[in-house]
Amino acid sequence: MKMILLGAPGAGKGTQAEVICDTLHIPAVSTGNILKEAVRKGTELGVKAKGFMDAGQLVPDDLVISIIKERLAEPDCAGGFILDGFPRNVQQAQALEELGVAIDLVLDIEVADEDIMRRLTGRRVCASCGASYHTAFKPSKAEGVCDRCSGELIVRADDAPETVAKRLTVYHEQTEPLKDFYEAKGKLAIVQGQEEVADTTKLVLDTLSRYGG
Ligand code: AP5
Ligand code: MG
Q1: Which ligand is closest to the CA of 132, given by its number?
Q2: Which of 5, 89, 134, 135 to mutate to test the pocket of ligand 1 (most atoms within 8 A of CB)?
Q3: What is the value of pTM for the model shown?
Q4: What is the helix (H) or strand (E) element at residue 91, kind and residue range?
Q5: Helix (H) or strand (E) holding 185
Q6: Which residue, 11, 48, 87, 196, is most buried by CB atoms nearer than 10 A?
Q7: Tens place of pLDDT for every residue, the chain, 213 residues?
């Protein structure tokens, strides 16, 4: 299964990717997480990307496309993968096609803008493994500590309310047109994001089983 998770910032792409990974035993590839790691380590890529990310804008296409090209060539992606946060505009989707990647399913998680702010201000992420939690909707077992790897849970730099608003604008202008792009190819399935994480997971897994996952 080669699939794409689409959705606004905070729609739950990372949260559902964790479940799909465990269910289908395929890796999740999050360009956002790869970029954040590069920023944290201060690599050349991180230095180039940081300003765009802090401003809630997209990082230039050439940078993210080369990240994807390298990552998908690794052996663990041979049996399938979940793309979380890529492609994010039509040019990136076309680049994926040019790389010869045939996508089986594009799963779009729909959440209203007014719910996004609530989700992102309560979000906590693991500084070590990137796992995503929420103070109210998906608390960790021990406060401030990751269930998976015992890493420290932190607030993401781009979850400040004014940056979230910018990210939503970018999403509607640049990423949302991908729904039509993949609908026209017969690849799009839409899941309505639910109030509870587990309810969204059920819809996601039901959809996957309909598509042979
Ligand atoms: P990225 O890290 O991809 O951020 P994003 O798309 O804005 O998405 P998020 O990670 O914020 O949200 P999510 O959908 O994963 O939600 P989550 O599961 O955490 O990208 C960051 C930046 O990198 C971009 O702004 C850009 O600059 C750059 N970038 C990345 N990819 C790029 C690309 N391809 N091209 C150019 N630039 C790129 O859930 C959110 C919260 O809600 C959590 O707290 C979670 O616990 C909670 N939650 C989840 N589901 C539910 C539910 N059903 N009910 C209640 N709460 C829920
Ligand atoms: Mg994410």
Answers
A1: 1
A2: 134
A3: 0.92
A4: helix 90-98
A5: none
A6: 87
A7: 999 999 999 999 999 999 999 999 999 999 999 999 999 999 999 999 999 999 999 999 999 999 999 999 999 999 999 999 999 999 999 999 999 999 999 999 999 998 998 899 899 999 988 899 999 999 999 999 999 999 999 998 899 889 999 999 999 999 999 999 999 999 999 999 998 899 999 999 999 998 877
